[in-house]
């Protein structure tokens, strides 16, 4: 069995060693820019993050492409360069869901308990207890109730916030009000005091966090975006924070990463910025999951996490 590996964000050696250890029958090779089809054996499986089109070409017997992340927007952008009829398989949690739950819980609690305000006070030496937010009106709304969104919901529930979620298909999750489809989006938004975005980036969700949508949130609402930067209309968000319709935002993802030094988000103290670290791809968990799926496919068994190309996630 031949596996081809590519990830611009990771040193390849530990991935090669890990994959070879759990799949001793496999020959694992790194794909590098400049390699032609003559330089690599035809692959049975590709394990890759943001692969260039050239890597995917010319593998006649390819059985699956494993995306080294949950989001498949980058790989699906390859469009016609993707091998047709070959399953693209996303990482299915693989240790990311609990990291997302930690990140989002922190961002909600930081804002709810006014630690952001206390931090500002502390910088100028002010000792002043502030009026707490009212928990009954502090509804948390989660856009996206998939693998990561449903885990975030479970974590947030522990703190007793009123909780609502929005997805494409209707969900029935305990202790939260679930909304589905575009027709129910406005109802979902109107009392979401904190809006968490954990949607996949597709044609339908690009720029979903625009002025017209964010204006439907109650005054003083707070945005947490841990999905993709292209969900956000950046100048709209900034304007709504400056006009105080929104209280602020915690953003982990941006249209351009790294966020350029001159970007106005850096100058806005009500925007907290992290460098796309909300949920990191964990090597051991990912290798274990991919190996189990390869073994299942080799046995002709079904696997979860196959991307629906028509939906874009
Ligand atoms: P899933 O595919 O499991 O879940 C996606 C959810 O979004 C589903 O509930 C789906 O609805 C809903 N959805 C998709 N399109 C629409 C739409 N048009 N209208 C309403 N709901 C919609 O994805 P994950 O939870 O695993 O991951 C979500 C995203 O998180 C990834 O795509 C990636 O971009 C991002 N991510 C960010 C990371 C970071 O570090 N910042 C790390 C990992 C992922 P339905 O259930 O009905 O299909
Ligand atoms: C992912 C990511 O999609 O790391 O997994 O953003």
Q: Which structural class best describes the helix and strand composition?
A: alpha/beta
Shape: elongated
Q: What's the SSE pattern?
A: EHEEHEHEHHEHEEHEHEHEEH
Spatial strand sequence of the major β-sheet = 8-7-6-9-10-11-12
Oligomer: single chain
Number of domains: 2
CATH superfamily of the largest domain: NAD(P)-binding Rossmann-like Domain
CATH topology of the largest domain: Rossmann fold
Ligands and ions found: NADPH dihydro-nicotinamide-adenine-dinucleotide phosphate, oxalic acid
CATH class of the largest domain: Alpha Beta
- Poorly predicted regions are none
Gyration radius, rounded:
21 Å
The overall pLDDT average reads 97
The major sheet is characterized as: 7 strands, parallel
Roughly how many Å apart are the termini?
Answer: 28 Å
Helix content: 25-40%
Number of helices: 10
**What's the total number of strands?**
12
Strand content: 15-25%
Instruction: Identify the CATH architecture of the largest domain.
Output: 3-Layer(aba) Sandwich
